[in-house]
Amino acid sequence: MHVSLDGFAATPDRGLQWVNIDQDIFDYAGNQTDNADTALYGRITYELMDNYWPTAADKQGASKHDIQHSKWYNAVEKIVLSRTLKTTRASKTRIISEDAPEEIYKLKEKTGKNIIMFGSPGTVRSLLGDDLVDEFWLFVNPVILGHGIPFLQDASVRVNLELVSSRDFPSGLVCLQYIKK
Q1: In the 8-state DSSP scheme, what is residue 131?
Q2: How many whole angstroms separate alpha carbon 5 and alpha carbon 42?
Q3: Distance CA 76, CA 157 (A)
Q4: What's this model's pTM, rounded to 2 decimal places?
Q5: How far is CA 37 from the centre of its chain?
Q6: H helices then E strands: how many in the chain?
Q7: Of the candidates 101, 99, 94, which has an alpha carbon nearest to the alpha carbon of residue 38?
Q8: Percent of the chain with pLDDT over 70
Q9: pLDDT for 106-128, tens place per residue?
Q10: What DSSP element (H or E) covers 42?
Q11: Which of 52, 120, 35 is nearest to 81 (CA)?
């Protein structure tokens, strides 16, 4: 999850132009996606991702990251938590509209690689309340937005975390990895 120094996950209009991304960050994040075979999204983030990633590798001048992430995106199972999105034609995509905690518990019990979530701050807050988030990878960007969509506004539970790794990048971005204690 990319966050600003003051804890926002996006601008009020859901903009992410402030997110600091370069090849070093792509390579670092790519190691995490390589260890995941399921992607979990809220509806809004899923729609953003699905509008870009399925064909990103096919675009003229596609970057190394676009090619790699597009290949990964098309290969993994995508789970969308949404009460409003009911169907999709996208392959390897399942929508969960009801009993989300129970369905996520079942996913976590399956053998395989990790489940990874991109963005979706509202979904993160919801899953925290059901004790379904095991770790956080926060990409703290060197910017103060002042207002926007908070990463964890009104989180309903206290979760104690342990910092297990941190990595700083020349751009000023810092990645912090926390696990639940």
Answers
A1: T
A2: 23
A3: 30
A4: 0.88
A5: 13
A6: 5, 10
A7: 94
A8: 100
A9: 999 999 999 999 878 888 888 88
A10: strand 36-42
A11: 120
- Interval 35-55: pLDDT, tens: 999 999 999 999 999 999 999
- Give the number of C-alpha atoms closer than 13 A to the C-alpha of residue 23, restricted to the C-beta side: 3
**Residue 159, token pair as written in the block:** 């979760």
Picking from 145, 124, 146, the residue whose alpha carbon sits closest to that of residue 133 is 124
Please, what is the Cα angle at 61 between 9 and 38, to 5 degrees? 45
Q: CATH says 2-180 is which class?
A: alpha beta
Q: Are 46 and 80 contacting, i.e. CB atoms less than 8 angstroms apart?
A: yes
Contact partners, residue 176, CB within 8 Å, separation at least 6: 136, 137, 138, 140, 163, 165, 166
Spatial CB neighbours of 89, under 8 Å, sequence gap ≥ 6: none
Specify the residue for token string 């809220």: 42
Judge whether residue 78 has pLDDT over 90. yes
